[in-house]
Amino acid sequence: MQKNTILVATMAIATLGTGAQSCLAIATSSVGLAVLKQVLLGGITKGLGIFSNKDSFLSNQLIEAAMPSQLREVNNTLQKIGLGNLVAKEKEYIAQAATFTVDISRPILTNAVNSLTAADAARIIQGGSGAATQILKEKTSQQLMLAIAPKVDAKLNEFGIIKSLNSALAGSNLLGSIFGGQNNNLSATTGISNFASEQMVNGLFNIIQNHEKQNSATLLNSLSEFK
Questions:
Q1: Where does residue 27 rank: exposed (0-12), middle (13-18), buried (19+ CB within 10 A)?
Q2: What pLDDT is stored for residue 7 in this prediction?
Q3: Less packed terminus of the chain by CB within 10 Å, N or C?
Q4: With 0-12 CB in 10 A as exposed, 13-18 as middle and 19+ as buried, what is 122?
Q5: Average of pLDDT values for 174-197?
Q6: In this structure, are residues 130 and 212 in contact, taking their beta carbons and an 8 Å threshold?
Q7: 173 vs 181: CA distance, rounded Å
Q8: Average pLDDT over residues 96-108
Q9: Is 0.85 surpassed by the pTM of this model?
């Protein structure tokens, strides 16, 4: 019971963002770090679980909200010209490609969490709810993009969706405006794959941060039981 009380109190302190030295000492201790890591690892497990299931990926609003504006513009244009079925297929293939990024993303995120320091914990305390995910994002987002983008590009081309999008938008200046005036197959292929990868990375962090905030609220409620 005493150990659980310490764990709950530690996370609650981090969530509230107090600057008191005594609270800072507790939250940046080995116990405090363990709690922060546990919360983040739980969010990672939840997010990658969603990525592992195509239907869960497609129905998740946090992933949908992470879609880059450029890819959304492509989809809106396709909808306007009556190619909503192609948009649905594109989203389905992106969701399917996401399943192949799970094993690549997991060690990158897990290693980053396990390497969090007392200095990181102090920043999290000062940043308040959601700050832990933001720090994790700072540490890993670029590495994640570099790691998964080639896999996503290969899968989307294997599924043939990039070719279909290029054909559907042939003669349109949309791709040229998005890719800096270079409306060719290579730039479109790389660009669309990068947009899909960006959506995956940001969508994953949206899920992790949502988990962090939900868990923080639960811990705060639990803390009140010990007052």
A1: buried
A2: 45
A3: C
A4: middle
A5: 66
A6: yes
A7: 8
A8: 98
A9: no
> Residue 81: what are its φ and ψ, rounded to 5°?
-95, 15
Q: How confident is the model at residue 164 (pLDDT cuts 50, 70, 90)?
A: confident
Q: Which two tokens stand for residue 131?
A: 């700050």
- Please give the pLDDT value at position 35: 81
- Enter the tokens of residue 150: 């080639």
The two three-digit tokens of residue 119, written as one number: 């200095």
Does residue 36 contact residue 124 with C-beta atoms inside 8 Å?
A: yes
Cβ–Cβ under 8 Å, residues 25 and 9: no
Phi, psi of 127 (to 5 degrees): -80, -25
Q: Are 56 and 204 in contact (CB under 8 A)?
A: no
- Name the H helices within the chain: 2-16, 21-27, 30-51, 54-59, 61-65, 69-80, 84-99, 102-114, 118-127, 131-159, 161-168, 174-178, 185-224
Instruction: Compute the Cα dihedral for 26, 18, 123, 142 and give only its sign.
Output: positive
Q: How far is CA 155 from the centre of its chain?
A: 20
More confident residue, 128 or 171: 128
As a whole number, mean pLDDT of residues 47-61 equals 98
Name the amino acid, one letter, at 63.
I
Query: Tokens in use for 158?
Result: 């294997």
CB contact set of 39 (below 8 Å; sequence gap of 6+): 11, 132, 211, 212, 215, 216
Phi, psi (degrees; rounded to nearest 5) at 82: 80, 20
Quick check: helix, strand or coil at residue 172?
coil
Q: Calculate mean pLDDT across residues 123-144.
A: 90
